[in-house]
Write a structure and sequence with these properties.
The chain is an alpha/beta fold and 143 residues long. It has two domains: 85 residues, Rossmann fold; 43 residues, no CATH class. It has five helices and six strands, in the order E-E-H-E-H-H-E-H-E-E-H. Strands 2-1-4-3-6-5 form a six-stranded mixed sheet. The N and C termini lie far apart (54 Å).
Length: 143
């Protein structure tokens, strides 16, 4: 049954469908997983923060748009010896390293912001939401 499934993907034009076999034919031989992302529409999938790391690593991601497709992918688990992995899974290792610009003074990742930019963002959030927040700081504690 899995050979009959067709999906859109991050590397194909909108409306173009690909099978899991076609997806595997395009990925590098060393890639052992098939990645998918569940979103209501292609536009939301393309804007997903989960997709950013895959774009940087030049990895293709299959888009599933309905809850039943997500259910199928979750329960199928493997296809042709490759694991089906949700892009939303937080512990994915795509083999990428943050650049020096993305790291704070102590080497921790700031998601592309310099520590000065992160501090400015925190100050703006604090000012904008002063009635709702006691304190704003980055994950690394720069403030």
């Amino acid at each position: 049954m899995a050979k009959l499934l067709y999906f859109e993907s991050s590397k194909m034009d909108a409306g173009a469908l690909t099978s899991l076999d076609e997806y595997i034919s395009r990925i590098p031989a060393e890639q052992k997983d098939i990645y998918y992302l569940c979103a209501p529409t292609r536009e939301l999938a393309m804007e997903s923060p989960y997709l950013e790391a895959f774009k940087r690593a030049d990895k293709e991601v299959i888009f599933v748009y309905s809850a039943i497709d997500d259910f199928v992918m979750t329960n199928l688990k493997t296809f042709e010896g490759r694991n089906l992995i949700s892009a939303e899974k937080s512990n994915l290792d795509l083999g990428e390293e943050s650049t020096n610009e993305e790291k704070g003074k102590d080497g921790s990742d700031l998601g592309g912001l310099s520590s000065d930019s992160a501090n400015q963002l925190c100050a703006w959030i604090q000012l904008t939401l002063k009635d709702k927040l006691a304190k704003v700081r980055t994950k690394c504690g720069f403030l």
